[in-house]
Amino acid sequence: MSFFTFGRSQWLLAPLFLGLTISSSQPALAAPVSIDTIFAASPADTTRAAALPVAAVAAPKPAPFNNPPHIHPRDANGRVTDYTVAPGVTWHYENTKAFSWAYHIPRDLGQFPKFAFQSKNKGTLLGIAAGSVALWALDQVIVDGSQRFGQFVGLKAASTQKTLVYIPFRVGSANLPFEFNAPDNLNSTFYFLGDGWTHLAVASSFWIYGGIKKDNRALRTSSQLGEAIFSTGLVVQVTKRLTGRQSPYVATQDRGEWNLFPSYSTYQHFVPNYDAFPTGHLATAMATVTVIAENYPEYRFVRPVGYSLMGLLGYSMLNNGVHWASDYPVGIALGYAFAKIAVRNGRTRVEAPVDSTMGAGTGFRVLPRPKRWYRHGQFAPYTYGPFTGASWSIRL
């Protein structure tokens, strides 16, 4: 690295009170000198170069940045547990236990009120409320416009799927079959992005990878996805059963009716009459994107890609008349909150290793941010005749 120097105390400024003076430094105009240049120079030049700081004479050139992979040391069981994702930021992930996500759900539900309604979230909560009310006023216009656009581009409004697997299962009078469907048109494909099978496939992928590679971060991500999605789903379902809002495709009036606190039998008799608010599909999609993005911050594409897919999902539900636009803000907020809670409980921040410039276990190298030019200056006291003061020198 090349350096330029400022002279030391070349000039004295006027004395300040108590006899203290401060001198400014003047930049030298000489170019950086290397070892080879010194040996080839004249004796006078050599003498001048020898007076330069050592760093100016023999400063090595920085190595090229090539993002080398850096594998974090494994623990005694051969597992990767710690990940440095930025200078000074290292997260520790414990190994998961079987079905830990399930018994973490009550904990997450208990922590939700304190997490969501803390004082620093006042602005966010007011924004969600105001946005929901504004969208509610425009709900019918938005749904009608979305469906007209779908007709214009030839996008079918119907959300139809083919049943690939069906296994009947009943609990008392409740019919709870095991059913796996696949979309059979483009709008249904967009809608399928919020299907439970989609999120189950994502969580299973992390679980399989973590098991093969003994990667605790991947295993914890899978577990956090499970608890965030199910916690979100429980709150969404309770809210649906309390608000009882009609879906657009069965609405009997503009923006749909609200039948607060419908009975269980009434709700189950014809679910679309009561389950529009809030959206469960976007809530679980938001939970999935947030958990992955929080655990893998070095992959900056996660949020842009995830939010883009959520946009397609949101449009498809307007086009097929399943949801109103005002159903979205609360659902998205619920998914985000439970994802943050799950991630917070699923990792521990530790002191960064000595070599904190390397992204541990990520194949991602983080270079330290260089100091600003004015932070390189150094003060030094001096005495010159009757004057006593300090000089400021800087080397870039």
From TrEMBL:
Ubl conjugation as UniProt keyword: no
Gene3D superfamilies the record matches: Phosphatidic acid phosphatase type 2/haloperoxidase
Keywords of the record: Signal
InterPro entries for the chain: PAP2/HPO, PAP2/HPO_sf
Coiled coil: none
The keyword Signal appears for this protein: yes
Pfam families on file: PAP2
Domain of life per record: Bacteria
Signal peptide: 1-30
Residue stretches making up the Phosphatidic acid phosphatase type 2/haloperoxidase domain: 225-346
Protein name: Phosphatidic acid phosphatase type 2/haloperoxidase domain-containing protein
Organism of origin: Hymenobacter glaciei
